[in-house]
Amino acid sequence: MNIPVIFQFLKEVSANNNREWFNTHKDLYEKAREEFENLLSVIISRISLFDESIQNVQAKDCTYRIYRDTRFSLDKTPYKTHLGGYINARGKKSDHCGYYVHIEPGNCLLAGGSYCLPPNILKAVRQAVYDNIDEFLGIVEAPAFKQYFPVIGDNFLKTVPKGFPKDFEYAQYLKCKDYACSCYQPDSFFLQPDFPDRTEEIFKQMKPFADFLNYTIDDFE
Hints:
The structure is a single chain. The protein is of the alpha+beta class and 221 residues long. The protein has one domain (3-220). Helix content is 40%, strand content 11%. The chain has helices spanning 3-15, 19-24, 26-47, 119-131, 133-140, 143-146, 195-217, and strands at 83-87, 98-103, 108-114, 179-185. The protein has a 4-stranded antiparallel beta sheet with strand order 1-2-3-4. Strand 2 and strand 3 form a beta hairpin. Helix 1 (3-15) packs across helix 3 (26-47) and helix 3 (26-47) crosses helix 7 (195-217). The protein is globular, with a radius of gyration of 19 Å. The two termini are 36 Å apart.
């Protein structure tokens, strides 16, 4: 596993984000993709130690295309400047909560949760949080969890969603437009020999959060 190869490619494609450069350096991309899949395979094996549901997940099925969809974007650069992998027992397009690995120079992270939930599922998850707030707080406010994942959600409503009391003490957990959590890391995190151990520990702390979400989400799949 040669992780520096991944970072080197991403730095180069960021500096040369055009089709001419990419087409003449596609071998660098193929090597970086291979090494990223090797990295994901190591992480999958570690997560499998505490989450048996992903034991048969293959790294190649977790990765995303390097090509950007520029149709509706002002940014017309054709290539992503990161490599991402979503380790999910039901596939990377599922609403089921999984584990996400993001390698991008200066913006690396380990994350998980569920983004872009359909309105009916999002409403059901909010209801589950409201109905089981003590259990939810026991997960997301536990010190071992919070040291890695201090914030739940990336986008939020300005007010409490319709159907819930506006004076609810923990309203911030109902305002989430997505139920996700992220643990940002320096690039050096992935370059240390103990990164598999540290990654396992971080994702292990996230699993109760994923289990809580999936208890509701999986009823819809």
